[in-house]
Amino acid sequence: MSSTTRNKFTEGNIFSSLLSLALPIIFANILQSAYQLIDTFWLGRLGADAVAAVSLSFPLLFLVLSIGSGLTLAGTVLVARYKGANNQKAVDFSSSQSVFLILLTSILLAVLSYFASGPLMKVIGAGPDIIDDSVTYFKVSALGFVFLFLFFIFQSLMRGIGNVMLPVYIVLFTVILNAGLDPLFIYGYGPIPGYGVAGAAVSSVVTQAIAAAIGLIIMFRGKHGIKISLASMYFNMENLRRTFTIGFPASIEQSTRALGMTFMMVIVTSFGSDIVAAYGIGARMLSFIVVPALGLGIATTSLVGQNIGALKIKRAEKVANLSAKIAFFGFTGLGFIMFLVAVPLTTFFIPDDPKVIHDGALFIKVMSISFGFMGLQQVMNGTFNGAGFTKASMFISILGLWVVRFPLAYILSYTLEMGPVGIWWAFPISNLIAGTVAFIYFKTGYWKKRVFRDRSFLTGYE
Known about the structure:
It is a single chain. The protein has 462 residues and is mainly α. Helices cover 84% and strands 0% of the residues. The protein is globular and about 55 Å long. The N terminus is likely disordered. Keywords: Antiport, Cell membrane, Ion transport, Membrane, Transmembrane, Transmembrane helix, Transport. This is Multidrug-efflux transporter. It is found in: Cell membrane.
């Protein structure tokens, strides 16, 4: 597999290489987002409070997951570079180290999240009508963090070497399984009791455990480009240094993104449960666009990383330019479509609440006009990450969320008394600014200078 895969992504037509990586990643990410969409569909039949309870939990769940996401990104970048340099021994060792580190991290985060669930929900502003369901949902979800993280690192490592189809098959299977288990655990059937809101989390944990087990079995067998081993799972200081250098800024980026979502939710909750439900629907529609944008960004990371590993810097730059064009024009078109179908989409999830439908549809319409700039930012971040310059992605994300979006949402909604509409408008304005800054910074070429200074990927592990 080594020579064929290496030639495919470091030689030949760039568009076909990017497409062969991006489409399966995007499809897998869309399938994963279906977990939340399926949950929302079934919980919407319980009422707006059920949707609001899960919507309130989502930013905190994302915050916890983002803390460990830097390790998964570091795994992708390091493995892609070693693959591009045709160093299979380093691929296997780095993969084993990544699995080991993510396992320890996930256990720690699962324990902390479980016991901190109550206070966290109170801090974020959960009202008395939804706090019990929010806490229960978060606790059950926390129990599945270990499984979720292990499958995420499996996905990331496979994407790093360019084996993107295998995770798709696993995700497709688990999503179909989740669709069947959701109504079973939410409403109950026969001897199985209905757990209400918590049932959606139970269903997700079961399917995540199955996905993680399959991923580990595949990597231990070593027949799909990566072979991990227990003997390589220990604290290696050189690997820790490389992982930390790449992963820490990525973790900060994702954490600040999640914290921004959490603080945004604090503003949203001040307008009542109906607005929380509307925001939850809009956020899920946004995730349906963010997911393919992230997928294209991840594909860019892998392709840029492999070409840098092969010392083909000009080709890596061509990859980034092509990704930028696809992202901007493609997601602008998707935004136009989302604008047109905003009302029926919102009605699909909460069919019997006209106020939530109106507010949720307005949120979707306002956001949709900036999807092209959001996609542009994601592929630029993917380029910087593939080059190992994760600090650039971190600073751009902090700019978009903390310098622009959150303060602007507060000013528009309270100071200028626009109410929830002010929150909605903070999204497109921040996307426009962050996307533009990312592209301008890419054109300065500083990320290429970083690559020439850092040649650690040329050395493997003895």
